[in-house]
Amino acid sequence: MEDSHYLYNAAMRARIAANLDDFQRTTISSTGLKHAAVALTVVCAEDGREGAYVLTRRTSKLNSHGGQFALPGGRIDPGETPTQAALRELREEVDLDLGEDAVLGLLDDYQTQSGYLITPIVVWAGGSAKMTANTDEVARIHRITFRELNRSDSPTFEDIPESTRPVIRLLMGDDALHAPTAAMVYQFREVCLHNRQTRVAHLGEPVWAWQ
Fold first, then answer.
1. What ranges do the domains of the chain cover?
2. Rounded (5°) CA angle 192-195-196
3. β-strand pairing of 34-44 with 116-124
4. Mean pLDDT over each residue of the chain, to the nearest integer
5. Which of 28, 97, 159, 161 has the most Cβ atoms closer than 10 angstroms to its Cβ?
6. What is the pLDDT of residues 107-166, one digit of tens each?
7. CATH number of the domain at 3-209, out of 2.60.40.3410, 3.40.50.300, 3.90.79.10, 3.10.129.10?
8. Nearest alpha carbon to residue 107 among 195, 24, 41, 181
9. Do the beta carbons of residue 55 and residue 142 sit within 8 Å?
10. Which distant-in-sequence residues (6+ apart) come within 8 Å of 166 by Cβ?
């Protein structure tokens, strides 16, 4: 991507929305699965210029996946749509209150080894988005720049004996993001930033994420 394509502005919003309009998402029946939604939230980076997405580090005291990186999100409550659930979780986890007019589109449903069906919702946060972590759930809020998301040595894929699905890792700084989050963020990169019809259902999670 050229430097101008990283700028967080109206042109970026229009490109992402247009790419999502072109994308034919794949849906999966939630029957027998725990249905959840996550928000892939596009914000301005710390430098005040570039685009970024919101990633949280879960608190270590959580019973499920404590200390891990995650997108804001969670189980869909009875009567909620995936979009409503993702926006509610944004409010609850990082105190970002956005309406449905902020939603740019949806990516493919992703089924996890642990029996979840996750629907990713792409959201535009606007130029003045301020976030505060809910310390019951979130230890830290990160803004991962699109420049970092597009680094040339990422993602990596690993074959493991426990699964036929290659395990994806997205590199960020000296750390790495694993599936299911890595798979959804990778599809966001491919579809929203590059207009590529990339699928990720075949990409797997490390064994420790199967619980």
1. 3-209
2. 110
3. parallel
4. 93
5. 28
6. 999 999 999 999 999 999 998 889 999 999 999 999 999 999 999 999 999 999 888 999
7. 3.90.79.10
8. 24
9. yes
10. 157, 158, 159, 202, 203, 204
